[in-house]
Every structure is written in structure tokens, then in C-alpha cells.
Amino acid sequence: MFITAAATIILSFVLVLSLHFVKQRFDGLELTILFIFSSYICQNTYYKLFSPYDRLSVGDSGWAKLTVIVHFGIVLPILLIIVLFILKSTNPSFYAVSSIAWIFIIIVYEKIFLISGILEKSNGHWYPTIDAAAAVVILFITTFVMKKIHWILKKEQVIT
């Protein structure tokens, strides 16, 4: 559990530093709003929404709770922003590949969290298709919101 927590925290620091390169395609305000929105939607979808239904729950230790908060509040949103950066930077085929990779990362990390005891299955079953479907919905919603934020900030002449 401690190794997984440490790896997640280190990964979050590296990803926060990588946001400097993402600023090439996003304005600072646009990037901030997008990060807050994607962090909110990732935390609510995975961490809070699924908890009341006894599908997956967070372990009792403080390390487990910290790891889940960092993963769903920082790591996944920044990876999602990098996917959106790829959408703005390259052709759609790279966006499709990076989107699939983002969904795959979610499923792999949840499996690692289940193995290490950070996440626990209450009913003995884990269905990764539910997480994949939620990831697709988050991806579409965040892409729509990114375009809407850009349009609103451009309309209000906050960005050029």
C-alpha cells in the first residue's frame, strides 16, 4: 500500500510539472477552469458516486484515503488535460489513441489499488466495464466543456 501511495504522489508531482508544457495550447485561466472541472468530475464520478452503492470502497487507512484523493483529484484530471492537449495539438487519430490509453490507465490503476488494498470490493465483484463507461462519459463531457470554456472566454475577450 505504501509503495502504491508513494508512486501515486510522485506521479502527481511529475504531472503537475508537466502542465507547463500544456500551457502552449491553453490559456492560463482556461487551463485552471478545465483542471478544476475535470478534478471535480473525476472525484465525484469515481470517488463519491460509486461509494454509496458498495461497488468499491476506500480502505480504512489514511494512506489509502490520501492515495485515492490524489489519484482521482490530481492524476486523472491532469492526464485528461493532456489528452485534451493532444486533441488541440494533433490529428484526431492521436486523440483517439490517447483517449483509449486514458481509459486503460483508469482500469489498470483501479486493479492495482484493489490488489494493494487501497480500494476494497464490498460484494466480491469488480466490473471494469462500469469504470470504462464512466471514463467515456467523463471524456465526452470534459471535451464539450473545454470547447465551451474556450468559446466563452474568447467571446468575452478574455483570451485571443
Structural class: mainly alpha
Low-confidence runs:
none
For the termini, the CA-CA separation is: 46 Å
Task: Tell me the radius of gyration.
Answer: 16 Å
- The pLDDT mean sits at 86
Q: Classify the beta-strand content into a percent band.
A: under 5%
Topology:
Blueprint: H1 2-22, H2 28-48, E1 56-58, H3 62-89, H4 92-116, E2 119-121, H5 128-155
Antiparallel strand pairs: 1-2
Helix pairs in contact: 1-3, 2-3, 2-5, 3-4, 4-5
Attribute tags:
single chain, 160 residues, two-stranded antiparallel sheet, mainly alpha
Summarize the structure.
With 160 residues, the protein is mainly alpha-helical.
Written account of the structure:
The chain is mainly α and 160 residues long. Helices cover 77% and strands 4% of the residues. The protein has 5 helices and 2 strands; from the N terminus they run ααβααβα. The chain has a two-stranded antiparallel sheet.
